[in-house]
Amino acid sequence: MHLSLTRVTCHATSMVRKPPRRRNPPGTRYLTPAGYKAFKDEFHELLYVVRPKVVEQVADAAAMGDRSENAEYIYGKKKLRHIDSRLHFLEQRLSDVVVVDPSEQTAADIRFGATVVLEDEELEGEVVYILVGEDEIDPSRNRISWQSPVGRALIGKATDDLVIVNTPKGRRELVVLRFYYDPI
Length: 184
Prior knowledge:
Layout: E1 29-31, H1 33-62, H2 71-95, E2 97-99, E3 115-120, E4 125-132, E5 143-145, H3 149-154, E6 162-167, E7 170-180
Parallel strand pairs: 1-2, 4-5
Antiparallel strand pairs: 3-4, 3-7, 6-7
């Protein structure tokens, strides 16, 4: 089964096709190669492993008779809707994404995918952040969104720059000690 949205275009007098409308303009969502692979793997697992098993369970439950009081059937249908919703979400994300490999970056300033080492006066020490896309955020691994307040403040900065960030907890002053681009 391949999930995709079909767009029907009505051509009255003109043969000119309008481009499909997207929720986000192309290039607004970034993923690292690892993030892209994780999405592709999840999509494949759901579509070819999990969904067929649930379809089989629903079919078995439906064969038992009255569906209106069959908890296995009702739960299975609910689970299928959830799986289909997640598949649709993943398909949309994968179609609107730009994959950026940090190891191929040559920028002289901080960009998406950079690993940034900062001096944080508030914490009285160093802090390391990796700027990733919003779908790859993981604070336990120091992965923050490049669109977060700290991420936006770091974009375009270079070594020894003072970065002032207004966060919900207040103003933070950070100094860029170094940054580099490694594969994630």
